[in-house]
Request: fold
Amino acid sequence: MYKIIKKRILNPTVTQMEIEAPLIANKALPGQFIILRVDEDGERIPLTVAGTNKQNGTVKIIFQIVGATTEKLNHKNEGDSIQDFVGPLGVATHIKGLKKVCIVGGGVGCAIAMPIAQAVHEMGGEVTSIIGFRKRDLVILEDEFKACSEKLHLMTDDGSYGRKGNVCVPLTEMLEAGEKFDMIITIGPLVMMKFVVEAARPYGTPVTVSMNPIMIDGTGMCGGCRLTLNQDGKKVTKFACVDGPEFNGYEIDFDEAISRGKMYWDFERHAYEETCNLFKQA
Amino acid sequence: MAINPKKHEMPTQEPQVRSHNFDEVALGYTEEIAIAEAQRCLNCKNQPCVNGCPVNINIPDFISKIKDGDFEGAYRVISKSSSLPAVCGRVCPQETQCESKCTLGIKFEPVGIGRLERFVADWHNENATDAPGKPQSNGYKIAVVGSGPSGLTCAGDLAKKGYKVTVFEALHTAGGVLVYGIPEFRLPKSIVAKEVDTLKALGVDIEPNVVIGKTLTVDELFDMGYEAVFVGSGAGLPNFMGIPGESLKGVYSANEFLTRSNLMKSYLKNPETPIMKGGKVAVVGGGNVAMDAARTALRLGAEKVYIVYRRSMEELPARKEEVEHAIEEGIEFRLLNNPIEILGYDNPDDKFDPKNGFVTGMKCIKMELGEPDEKGRRRPIPVEGSEFVLSVDTVIISIGTSPNPLIKNTTEGLEVNSRGGIIVNEDGLTSREAVYAGGDAVTGAATVISAMGAGKMAAIAIDEYLSSK
Reply:
């Protein structure tokens, strides 16, 4: 069992927890993920590591309440424990040698983007951050991004906070104005990442995307997290759990990934509703 | 007394009943049947069956104990050589191992050694009261990577010799392929749990949720004071065919499909982990894993399940007994058929139709057998113009696996072959001092018992290495 040391509500749909897992805290690097099960017979879900505290032996996770499992997790409090917590899995973000980086985060993806922005900043690199949310209530980690970014563009879809528009607006403006980045690192909804790649394409700026496909074991056994990459005109199958989760954005078949992500939509909706009803009764 | 030419039949659940439940298919011998079957053993002097057993169980000895009605005594004989008798009695391919060497088999059916082994192990699990005592510790610490058949065997054998063994398991439950791969109806999970408990009683520690190569590396295990490491990390990533449509919704690897059903218990009524149930299902491949996937799909409520295999029944690599069970349950074998494309729904008028991207069928081509290849298996050749579409909703691809890269990538000096399997010598020693390996991580996908044989061999080698140090 793995104890929840701290819990913080970041916004009505996003929660941060620090979990006691010293072995993982000791190893995890930005870009890597963990897999957890809330309780016995629970589903295994992957969540990207949002930070570690080696001294306390804790790992920070930030999750959006989107389904039955995250709903159950959100009902756990400080002092409670979760059944399983394993990692760090996947390959860490390649930030070595990057001098000027644009970090583009969308929604809860900002939670994963933030430690990468911090790592580049600590390495002495120049960080420009673009973070986007649907509306003001959902904004997270603004101060954290401010602290590690030379420039911060905060966008909301409805203009209720920061600037109105999506993350591609400031990105395109900067690229048009001749800004050169060694790398754009983007994490957020698949559709957003797809458009970030398209925005960068005319300028040839390298784009790293962080994929979050459906996974079970996360260790290179089930193959459920497979993605199709187009490499030099050839279709190649890669596994997000061991080869990723980060990939060259120009190679990813986003349409396929978007479609595969919806495989269990019906099931997930029902399970979520049932879980919510269960908590309402309790 | 004349010898009964046939093995005593294994009582089983009726096919039409069992195809709707996940309970065990074979029910096991009663005491009476076991004694009668044991009496068929000729107790030959040269004991050819023992040589046919990868872990060299003293078969005539345990069978003669059954004859005497001393079932616990029989168990003690088996457990000297095997750490997982209840598992082996169920999943070993005895027909190509011990039973294939049985003298009785020259004229008649061989002795049902596997069935007797299973009987003895089950009898022990039901009736034995005294837990095995913890052996005297010799002070040495050993790390075992993976709790599948090779790891558990290696751990058990070393623990019996007094070593302090810790088994690191990546998943949340111990058992490896015995819990994520082999279905409940062939190997109940309670049996695996019982065998794991027996090892714990011997003093073996099991640490779940530790991925060696990620959470800890092999080198860190040595830093932590482990003096030898056995790597039994299993088969690894599933292979795909490389045909169009393999990423459509409804296409699974057998590993994923079985893991969802077995480990994540999607077969239960209200599972937390989803799985596609019902409809028509095609399983591509002809091994034991393909049979497990097909029979699981049937039990999950499929209206029709096909095994699609590109060679003929003769070349089908699965155990005969599993094939027979599958046929009895109504699985349809589409032999000499090779998939060339998986087809998906695509509504040209509505990009957002929720049915888009789900499997609707699998295009196959008929095959005929040509000349034998270097392994002696006749090579299948496509019959031109014979393409047809099999209407299916789910496709499960079961054409093998490639070794997992996690340990290789994080262990300097660990040599692997061109296919990614860890290279070992005859003792199971790798290119790194004090690092041993066995099972599918070395051989690629093989059987439970051959993995156990490798774990056993490595345990002997580790003991020799540390005692001579």
Chain A touches chain B through 41 residues (CB under 8 Å). Residues 46 and 76 of chain A are 18 Å apart (CA to CA). Chain A has a mean pLDDT of 92.
